[in-house]
């Protein structure tokens, strides 16, 4: 009978794969589909379990077994970041970079935490550092582009997303976020192309369906917009934007009762989601509260 033994190297590889994948997926499509109504960029979706005592203890055991390996600190920092424990995350990324100053992935991960902390200048500096070390690192172009886009620096953001795409990225965020800029510029056909590419790369993400639907609305193609919004709801029924977008099509069709129902559902998911509150008022129902 085989006996399982703790292998620090193998554990490190497994933890690294799990947590860096989780962090990357959490970052993917944190932006809402309609640029004009989105006011936040939830780049890390908090999962408190990542910072559980048991989980951190297992990662610490890996670090203790390999105290000069920067990968361990990078992985534990990612776990802290996913748990919303940003200061410990920064400490771990700092340690990883002290051990290996050319660890470009750690710079990008630290930038992601800085973004969540609202420290955008530090985030930009870290993305710049990652790209100085590895000019072909698409993740850093996409991350820096998101910071630029949220700051209203659309030209810089557009260039960064375009660079990631030129590098052959398979990360749908590059297309999704460039699509948002095309949308803002009222280049709806190009936006639809980018959202469609994002969908092909991440077919289970609702955000690019919402984005493409908004561009269809701008082109008065309500049927395709409605199909996209409904599919976004099928993928994740807990996003207020999707329900508000669905309601908008009902409203445009003159079905105020169904529009009100969907707007109410959106408000139930996010009482502060202003597009849903405005829509409910337009169809003749005053939002509660």
UniProtKB/TrEMBL annotation:
InterPro entries the UniProt entry points to: TPR-like_helical_dom_sf, TPR_2, TPR_rpt, Ycf3
Leader sequence segment: 1-32
Keywords: Repeat, Signal, TPR repeat
Signal listed as a keyword: yes
Pfam families: TPR_1, TPR_2, TPR_8
Placement of TPR repeats on the sequence: 70-103, 104-137, 138-171, 172-205, 206-239, 240-273
Protein name: Tetratricopeptide repeat protein
Lineage, broadest ranks: Bacteria, Pseudomonadati, Pseudomonadota, Alphaproteobacteria, Hyphomicrobiales
């Amino acid at each position: 009978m085989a006996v399982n033994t703790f292998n620090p190297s193998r554990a490190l590889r497994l933890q690294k794969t799990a947590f860096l994948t989780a962090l990357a997926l959490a970052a993917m499509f944190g932006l809402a589909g309609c640029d004009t109504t989105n006011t936040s960029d939830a780049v890390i979706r908090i999962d408190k379990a990542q910072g559980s005592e048991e989980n951190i203890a297992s990662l610490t055991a890996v670090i203790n077994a390999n105290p000069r390996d920067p990968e361990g600190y990078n992985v534990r920092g990612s776990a802290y970041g996913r748990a919303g424990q940003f200061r410990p995350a920064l400490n771990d990324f700092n340690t990883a970079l002290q051990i290996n100053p050319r660890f470009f992935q750690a710079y990008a991960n630290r930038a992601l935490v800085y973004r969540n902390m609202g420290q955008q200048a530090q985030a930009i500096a870290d993305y710049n550092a990652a790209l100085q070390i590895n000019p072909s690192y698409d993740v850093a172009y996409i991350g820096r582009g998101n910071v630029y886009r949220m700051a209203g620096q659309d030209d810089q953001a557009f260039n960064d997303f375009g660079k990631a795409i030129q590098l052959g990225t398979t990360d749908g965020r590059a297309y999704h976020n460039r699509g948002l800029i095309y949308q803002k510029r009222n280049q709806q056909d190009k936006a639809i192309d980018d959202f469609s590419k994002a969908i092909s790369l991440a077919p289970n993400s609702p955000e690019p369906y919402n984005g493409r639907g908004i561009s269809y609305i701008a082109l008065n193609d309500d049927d395709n917009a409605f199909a996209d919004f409904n599919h976004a709801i099928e993928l994740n029924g807990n996003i207020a934007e999707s329900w508000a977008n669905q309601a908008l099509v009902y409203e445009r069709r003159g079905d105020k009762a169904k529009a009100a129902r969907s707007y109410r559902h959106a408000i139930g998911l996010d009482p502060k989601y202003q597009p849903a509150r405005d829509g409910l008022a337009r169809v003749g129902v005053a939002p509660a509260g």
